[in-house]
Amino acid sequence: MVSPVAWNPDLPLIRMREVVKKFGAATVLDGISLDVMKGQVICIIGPSGAGKSTLIRCINALVPIDSGSILVEGQEVNDPMLDKLALRRKVGMVFQQYNLFPHRTALANIMMAPVHVLKRKRADVAAQARALMRKVGLDGKEDFYPGELSGGQQQRVAIARSLAMQPDVMLFDEVTAALDPETVKEVLVTIRELAEEGMTCVIVTHEMGFAREVADEIYFTDRGVVVEHGPPADFFTNCRDERTRRFLSQIL
Amino acid sequence: MIGAGRTDLAVLKAFAPIAASRTSAVPFTARHGVMLIGALVLAVYIGDAQAGPGTPSIPATILKWTPLLAQGFALNIAMSVLAMAIGTGLGTALGLGLISLTRPVRASSWLITQFFRNAPWLVLLFYCVLLMPFEVRIGGVIVPLPGWAKATAGLALPVMANVAELVRGAVQSIPSGQWEAAEASAFTRLQTLRLVILPQCVKRMMPPWMNLYAIVVVATPLTSIVGVSEAMTLTGDILSSEGRTELLVPMYLYLLTWFFLYCYPIARATIAVERRFAVR
Lengths: 252, 280
Description:
The complex is a heterodimer.
Chain A: E1 14-23, E2 26-36, E3 41-45, H1 52-59, E4 67-72, E5 75-76, H2 84-90, E6 91-94, H3 106-116, H4 122-135, H5 151-163, E7 169-173, H6 181-196, E8 200-204, H7 208-214, E9 217-222, E10 225-230, H8 232-237, H9 242-251
Parallel strand pairs in A: 3-8, 3-9, 6-7, 7-8
Antiparallel strand pairs in A: 1-2, 1-4, 4-5, 9-10
Helix pairs in contact in A: 3-4, 3-5, 4-5, 5-6
Chain B: H1 16-20, H2 30-50, H3 58-98, H4 103-118, H5 121-131, E1 135-138, E2 141-144, H6 147-173, H7 176-184, H8 189-219, H9 231-242, H10 248-278
Antiparallel strand pairs in B: 1-2
Helix pairs in contact in B: 2-10, 3-4, 3-6, 3-8, 3-9, 3-10, 4-6, 5-6, 6-8, 7-8, 8-10, 9-10
């Protein structure tokens, strides 16, 4: 195993090399390599079943990989001795289905991890959580239960819950795919604000307009491989690969 | 909409049982109560007609013994509550064993659960009453173990196994997204269970747990076979001391009515709880 390299902000925050993941006979990731620099926003696009969700779940070790290397701030994720909890404190994640804890209020959802995982003082965390609620435009909804909030509002609470851990990188797994069209925008606006503040983001999305606007780098994946990647201006106007062109023509 | 198992459309007849099973089988309904009290009144009437001249009327006799019966019934309640409390505590631990990530723990928990869930309650009762000592020494103190305490332990064992299954089922019914979200928030497995999964299980477990309690209550008369002086035993004693055959049917129906009056509100509450938590 690679010994933890002294990581510095000039090195990629996330560095994936030849990552392979199989589910039974199906090879979902077939040698994925990508780099995410600190402060960079990358969008991963591609047809359904391309392994985008699996890719993003590998980064915080929700899905163990079969071979290859994933370094997060110099820490090897594909290591049996990995301290998963330490890794997940640095990597925030937002899910398609929000996955808020339905038995706790919005504020309590945000406070849980900082209080129980980071063992911070409840009063401090409460103040921070209220600030986060304001940040995602939900002040006044602190005492609402997830079931009482709209999809877009729940997703913004989920983003705030993730931010409460003060992660170094945020992973977004098709966070607008389950939303009503009219609430998609409020969530995208929240993410864009984060990106503009310099948060490192890995975003799996189907929102091409959003990807074009917010991404520093776009990765197009299909059948477990990165077909091509590049800055959005380049990527959308003169992509080289036939598969990319076909995908874009279908979706744009 | 298929409402409460009632259907007028022929095509829906096939689905009626499914619709009915949406609410768990509640053993006590108001109809049972009406039938029970009707039977009691009828039995008292017939019994009185059979009674020889000069004997006190059956209602008067029943009333005379009611305080004693109440004492016995209190023991039934106490045993059921205790068995339920002990069984729930142990069963929760056993249920967590069933979902343990450690194979030997999971396997042994499974074996214990299957054994105590499938063994006849009466057999477990006999084992506990006959195998447990009449007193135990804890430190320097000798704690006597009366028959009712041993019988309670005997009832707690099947409760434990049933609760373990309830816990396992409830945990597995929680969407996997909840586990993922908790894991992504860097919770340990224990924190995930304690803070996220189990609190959500409580709601789901409430209705079947209350049903189980009603079953435990009506199982407590089993302890009369191993000599516990609960309501059933006392009814037998009362009958033999009175020595009047016409008292037999009314007396046991009277006892049954007590059980019904205690269990019926629980059944109603179970339905209410079920309704409340079903819509979400």
